[in-house]
Amino acid sequence: MAITKPRTIGGEGGIAAQASGEFFIPDLCATRPVLLMFILSELLVVVYVLGGSRLPSFDWGTLALASLFVQWIMLLCAGFLCAARPVLARLSLPLGVLLSFVIILLVTTASSLVASLALANSNFGPLDTWWLLRNLLVAAVFGGIALRYFYLQQQLRAREQAELNARIESLRSRIRPHFLFNTMNSIASLIGSRPEQAEQAVEDLSELFRASLVENDDRGTLADELHLCRLYLGIEQLRLGERMQVDWSVEEAARACPLPSLLLQPLVENAVYHGVARMPEGGRIAIHARCVDERVRVEISNPVPPEPGVSGNGHQIALDNIRQRLEAIYRGAASLEVQPGSDQHRVVLSVPFEHQAEA
């Protein structure tokens, strides 16, 4: 007599529209969750057969029949739950769980009836009410455990995503005061001598802050970031005049690369305040962007003052914040390298080129 182990329910995407908007039962049409359920189901069958046989006389026949029975139930449940997933996702959580549970029990019942008819002369024997009830109880226990597990997994993912969003917003808010303080100093130096240009600088600053206040700041492009950098450098050009020159070299193909907002501007700001602005004769900032091996590589270089003096915490704070944002958004796929030199200081930002930002 065999036992039903319908390890049927998988993991990610779920039953109701959760607060995170994600259905907690996974897409059971995908290969990975089905393979995982297949392996777990087979392990349960092996444990069941081991519990009822001696090792010297291991019952391979029962193992084969039980494996066929359990895997059949598992695949059927996965198929029905996959087909019903769009409907279940629109239901409330309790109703979605209840219907998923009903699907598991119905599949187990139908499979038990078919197995009883097809294997009447095997260990499964003719249909036995107690045997059927035992199968349903096992299906209910393992189905409930699986549903609970995948629900907790979905809640954990939602919590991690919320913490990630809060962390990114916190890092952005730490950059804004630094940026505002430096830029307002630049505008203040123009008010008395060149009020018209100061007014233009204020308008440019307002556009920069409109960009910084956009909530969905991770769906811009390199072209958008370069535009913000040009606005910022335009403000600084009013203050520094001919002391600052800027070389631009940007491949057209790189402009479409998705890039979080206000990621390059702090690097350009560092090049101005810790490089050109501290040199009496000024200097040249070089900004290069190109595609290399399906990645976008942005290099920003500036001259190094002859006497470094106090570099300021602002330089390192901006770099640390950008590194943390890159880690939070790209999970190790992006990098920020600092390449100091005796006469040139260079930072290199490298991000994967993707035509569509990740959701």
Describe the structure.
- The structure is a single chain.
- With 359 residues, this protein is α+β, with helices and mostly antiparallel strands.
- The chain folds into 2 domains: 31-159, no CATH class; 192-352, Histidine kinase-like ATPase, C-terminal domain (Heat Shock Protein 90).
- Helix content is 57%, strand content 11%.
- The protein has a 5-stranded mixed sheet, with helices on one face.
- Helix 7 (265-273) links the parallel strand 1 (244-250) and strand 2 (283-292).
- The radius of gyration is 31 Å and the shape is elongated.
- The relative contact order is 0.09.
Write the layout of secondary structure elements.
Elements: H1 31-51, H2 60-89, H3 93-118, H4 129-191, H5 195-213, H6 222-240, E1 244-250, H7 265-273, E2 283-292, E3 295-303, H8 313-330, E4 335-339, E5 344-352
Parallel strand pairs: 1-2
Antiparallel strand pairs: 2-3, 3-5, 4-5
Helix pairs in contact: 1-2, 2-3, 3-4, 4-5, 4-6, 4-8, 5-6, 6-7
